[in-house]
Structures are given as C-alpha cells and as structure tokens.
Design goal:
Elements (H helix, E strand, L loop, with lengths): L2 H24 E9 L2 E2 L6 E14 L1 E13 L2 E13 L1 E22 L2 E12 L2 E12 L2 E20 L5 E8 L1
Parallel strand pairs: 1-3, 3-4, 4-5, 5-6, 6-7, 7-8, 8-9
Antiparallel strand pairs: 1-2, 9-10
C-alpha cells in the first residue's frame, strides 16, 4: 500500500466516526420541559425519542413520543403527540389533544375537540375539523375544507371547492 492510500484510509477511519458522532449528538434522546426556555435542551434542537412537557415545550423537531400540556414543534416531526394543545409545523403520525393545529402538511390521524390543518391527508375526528387542502376522511359535528377529496360525515359539512355540494348535512363527498 502506498503512503497516500494509508493516509487516506486513516483519514476516513478518523473522520467518519467523528461525523457520525456529531450527527448523533445533534439529536437528543429525551427532553424534559417545564416551560420553554426552562428545559434540558434548547428549542432549536431535535429530539429523537421522548419529550415530556409539564407546561409548555418547544423544539424544532420531535421524532418519537411527545407528551404534555402544550406541545410545539416548528419543523417536520414524526410520531405520536398527546396533549391539551398540539402545535406543529408539519407532522406525520398521530396527534391527539383538545386542540390540534398543523401549520404545514399533516399526514396521519388528528383526534381532538378542534383539529385544524393547512394541508391534510388522513383522518380527522373531533367536534370541529378544518383544513385548507384536505384529502381523506373527516368525522365531526362540523367539517370544513377549502378543497377536499374524500368523505365528510357530520352535522354540518362544508366544501368550498371539489365537493358534491358546497354545504350538505350528514355527509358530503369531495372529488
């Protein structure tokens, strides 16, 4: 083996573990928050594991289980979120709470008293469901969608664009 190859191989053997360690160090396995900023890790960190928010917790990303009174993420998160209020940027998974709000794209299941999503794909169940662009199934007393593909079942069903009718009680179908 030439000296050049030995140096390259040594460099790879040293740099790859360091790069991997730094990538893993950026993802924290557990977060405990009283009320942001009183939490173990700063709000801009990614939590890959479990986050427990006693009052209010905020992180950029939570991938895993997110439980607390008020749970906030600002970027794309994945997993299961349970709380009184869930505020997410974009989310993939299950979000259960009294009030669930997704500012970005949501894929999965929202269950709560009030569910609000910008772009939604999946299943919403609650007393009031609302979305800008919805694809899937809404089950509620009041269902609203600006554009809709799927089925709404509820006392009041409103589809502004793409619905069988703009308003229809009991059920409405979006195409």
């Amino acid at each position: 083996m030439t000296t050049r190859r030995i140096l390259m191989l040594t460099g790879v053997m040293v740099l790859v573990p360091l790069a991997t360690h730094q990538a893993l160090a950026q993802k924290k396995p557990i977060q405990l928050s009283l009320a942001t900023p009183v939490q173990i890790f700063p709000p801009e960190d990614t939590i890959a594991g479990v986050r427990l928010n006693l009052i209010y917790g905020r992180n950029a990303v939570v991938n895993g289980v997110d439980v607390g009174l008020v749970n906030k993420t600002t970027e794309v998160s994945r997993g299961f979120q349970l709380g009184i209020v869930g505020l997410v940027g974009s989310f993939q998974g299950v979000q259960w709470g009294v009030v669930n709000i997704s500012e970005g794209k949501f894929e999965g299941w929202q269950r709560g008293v009030v569910n609000v999503s910008d772009t939604f794909r999946g299943y919403q169940a609650g007393l009031v469901n609302s979305g800008r662009d919805v694809e899937g199934f809404q089950l509620s007393l009041v269902n609203y969608a600006r554009s809709f593909k799927g089925l709404q079942i509820g006392l009041v069903n409103i589809i502004k664009e793409g619905g069988m009718l703009p308003f229809f009680p009991i059920f409405n179908i979006g195409t």
